[in-house]
Amino acid sequence: MAVDKDTEAKILRYHHVEQWGVHTIATQLGIHHSTVDRILSQAGLPKVERALRPTIIDEYLPFIIETLQQYPTLTAARLYGMAQSRGYPGGPSYFRQRIAELRPRKTPEAFLRLKTLPGEQGQVDWGHFGHLEIDGAKRPLMAFVIVLSWSRHIFLRFYLNQRMESFLRGHVGAFEFFNGVPKVLLFDNLKSAVLERQGDAIRFHPTLLDLSAHYHFEPRPVAVARGNEKGRVERAIRYIRDNFFAGRQWQTLEELNTQAQAWCLGHSADRRCPGDKSLTVGEAFAQEQSRLIVLPDNPFPCDERVEVSVGKTPYARFDLNDYSVPHTAVQKMLTVMASQTSVRVLDGLEVIAEHSRCYGKGRQIEDEAHIDALLRSKHQARHHRGQDRLAQAAPSSCALLERGAALGNSLNSLISALIDMLGEYGAPELEAAISEALQREVPHPNAVRQALERRREERDQPPPMAVPLQNTKARNIIVKPALLASYDAIGAAEPESLEQQAHVNQENANEESSNDNNDK
Hints:
This protein has 20 helices and 16 strands. By secondary structure, the protein is α+β, with helices and mostly antiparallel strands. It has five domains: 5-42; 58-102; 121-291, Nucleotidyltransferase, domain 5, CATH 3.30.420; 304-375, no CATH class; 379-501, no CATH class.
């Protein structure tokens, strides 16, 4: 209980001048006796020791103290239950109070302030910044951070996982950002850095050792449960959360990383250096940069390498998606080499397919040349290929085909018409038009085309351009125009003359038929 200066003066006067006891002072001033004890103790007077009255918990104290010495983190609720089973009749409130007094306290640990030389050390860690939804896939947003211990210059880059390939890319990007390498890098006990540890015996990840041999730095893991040994990077991640990531707007991962690099070179580098307040972080780094290890001529390779088995369909599965390969590569073991932007499929040393990387889930990334080659080799697969293409581009087409087939419509005609509209209008417009036709319960291509035309007219867009024929035989057919002069003459004739001409033509036909019979 806090008291004002006037009450403190009264307590001291009553004690020293009037010789009042603690309880008398507390009663007369209407305060608790512990408050009087505290005021007198602060004035340098010894605390009055009072005889403790016996309580119902006294006979259980040996059991409680022994249990707490063996299990110091055991909860008061569990101890209370154990005491009750041994006959303790009291309530939980007083019991909890005594447990808090009796529980052994951990001795506070003192830490030395660590100092490093310029270019001597950097600290590495990952930070988790939530998740991203990309085309149906939930990907973690991970921040890779390296801090130079002397200047506190920060490198920050975001990835969609913390696998070994991203771990390597983060290091290579940081070394290029710093234009040099610190002599020692401190790591947490990550699987990407430490495979096994027994005391001081450490087995590093062999890929990390290859990286350190390439850039000539020493990897050094911190002790287990000793986050203070890499406190600079821990504080840097907290600083990133509060001063960079909070409230930031961005659309793509590339945009976020561009903003992160600008922040590292700008706002982060302009703050005061904790080791020397007369310098900014950027100015301290300018002094430290010359002490870093010089970069080698070539960067360390960071592409992901995965062995994949291709089944009966010409697709290689990698990172939740299927990438097309030539149909001649089915039933083979192939190698996928993936960067952050591309996926290459190799058969031995030969690159047989290359695609842009997709971070979605369950997607088919196709090269039309692969599919066209398969269609030429297996012409009968065209119907199923068209249906699969429609299902990928416009999922509602499956329901439209089912309802159309139930009404007796030709599936081939339906698929052909929908594929034509897909080429003319694109997948998003076709999906919206099919959904509208299904809502109107008209599962027919004409209803879909009407919806497409109406949506096009509402946007005031021109009609779609005709798609050139892909069939070389059809493209080379020559159609001779017919002479229409006779039709013009017929249109200009009088109705009566037309009837007479028809009568004459009928008589001539009869005569020819009679002559033929006589000849026979």
